[in-house]
Amino acid sequence: MVRLMKRTSNLPRPARWLWAMPNLALICFLAVGVALLLFIRNNERQRQHDELVEAVLWQDRALRAELTARQKQLEGMAHDLVRGDISEGAFYGRAADIMTSSPEVLAIAYTNEFGDAVWSYPAQSMAPLQMVPAVIEPLQRSARIGIASSTPPFDFPGAGQAVALSFPAVQGNRTLGAFVAIVSLKGLLRNYVPWWIAKRFQLGIVNLDGDTLAARPEQPLPDAGPLSYDVALDPPGYGLRLRARIFLTGWPLWQHALYWVLAGLSALMLWSLWVLKRHMRERLTAERAMLREMNMRQALEDSLVSGVFATDREGRTLHVNPAFCRMVGFEAEELLGGTPPFPYWAPETTNQCAQIFAAILRGECPMNGFSLRYQRKSGERFDVRLYSSPLIDGEGRHTGWVASMTDVTELKREREALKASHERFVAVLNGLDAAVAVTDRRNGELLLSNRAFREAFRLTAPDGPLCALPLRHADPGGEWFDPVLGRWYQHHRRETLWVDQSRVWLDIATDVSERKQAADRERQQTEKLQQTARLIAMGEIASSLAHELNQPLAAISSYSTACRNLVASRQLRPEELDGALDKISEQARRAGAIIRGIREFVQKREPKRSVCRVGDLLDTVLSLLAAPLNRHFVRLVEIRVADDTELFADRVMLEQVLFNLCKNAIEAMVEGPQERCELTVETRTRGDWLDMIVADRGPGIASDDVEKLFRPFYTTKAEGMGMGLNICRTIVEHHQGRLAVEAREGGGSRFVVSLPLATQPIFKETEHHAV
Known about the structure:
ATP binding, 20 helices, 771 residues, Beta-Lactamase, disordered C terminus, PAS-like_dom_sf, alpha+beta, single chain, six-stranded antiparallel beta sheet
């Protein structure tokens, strides 16, 4: 509408007023209609709100009266107890009468000053309350100080939310206890909210947080906004409120009809204005569109780099564009009206050009066009690619032919140069010892391979285009084993662009079988050294094994003796026996886990990766070090901030690394003063890395020895082998980690094991993979 008024701003002043008045009238009409409907709607909402307040106030008085009546019944029972007129049997009878006449009452009990039920109906009905401190505390207070009270809402099994009303029985200055009635909030609403209120409103009891504890009806309602009203519900108190919400109803039919009428009238007025304006603008729009179309077509034709010419059905030239004239070097006036042979046909190709032109006139237009050689006015030859199609006029009649041509002289020259370059490239590839191949990224088709590749994988020339690359499923950037040839290859792959700009894989495979065999021999020697180191460490952890096994065995003996005593006393309860047997089973499993950990630590085996927790790994190592720590009076300081962190690693190998580092730290402090014997084990995460730090307060490591520390057979111990730290670094580097040593502030050394955090393999391991 605003756009329509802007478009008419250039009209004379009377005409502008004629256009503006219908728009203003439409806006005023719509504003008055909307205001009227909103006024009617607000009056209806106010009337509903007043009825809601009146209903909730009436219902609040009714619920208060019922809760007060229940308290009066408890008060009567308390007075009868003081006078001695009520016994246990009489209590059960009166409790049954009250619960029969008041279905919302779930249970009635007589409790002592500690809140424990002396009499309860039904039996054991007070048991769930003993587990809720917030509920039992008001009952205990009521019984001790002799004041009637109630509890906050709680969940009663099988009945939902409920409250407990308590009235004490006081005799002189002594409180005999209290009578308690558990009242269901759902039952309270169900029994005392009349149908005529539940039909129009939803009544609910909510807590301080606004959570609905009970409601009638129980189905949830959308937020009613202002059509809700709360009043405090006291008793029982504790912030409970009675909330009423009205059922939202749709607008009356006549209001919807009025909206539709307003919308229809507005649409009609807008349509009439639009039709009138369209008739006024129709001629001007058509003229402007025709002019723009002609200018656009002329601009497109002048900006083309391909030559375009048109002929009639007899072959007479009707039109040429500027690009065609620039290609052939003739002016348009020299070419229009001409017939074959044309002046831009080269003498040596005149017959070929005449045959192709005749084929065009017959309607033979191949999709890939025609390849021709033309000459310019200066006599220079150039190659073109010619495409043709029928020329159809505005009435759908075939009046001639239109053809476009592109100068491909430079393209042909580039193709010839590319061919020569490709031949040189293939000669270089065939001279390489590594196998090189290029494959299609989508389907794995082999596009190019050198002689070394074909000889290595025994491919012949006819197999090339149909062969899927053998390295397609190999691990890029790693080593790959060919099970057919029995050879190992170092495989490198990267994505690149092919000559047709498609994405391809460039694979380079180098035969590393001899190097793998040497690595396997080195791995076997390393495994033997690791086994020897673990066997030497076995003697040191023998005392730790005895200490660890004594605890579960002593516990098993104690629990067995306890079971025997229970059986002999003839006071055996099944739950006590089950608990003792569970403890025996748990200690037996613990002893088995200790023996299994020692066996795995010593056992010679291949590397085996799995997901392991850092906390479990540290617990195993520190349990093995318990005896050396006690024997040398070394204090252990643990700083664990990454216990739940998980690694994908060989757990036994990492345990061996930590054990060796901790054992070296303990031995470094043996000769020092006892007050400085302190072993610190710290774990922390740093980005995508986990650091495990072992620090001691020993004499430290000389700067000259740091470089030699990890060399094989280098040791500073009188009886050392010199392989412990070398094996530790080998294991850590096998896990793509780093092992470093540094001086500790205040004296001593810090060994830092840094491992990458990963929950899946970083590379594929095979049975031939070397550590």
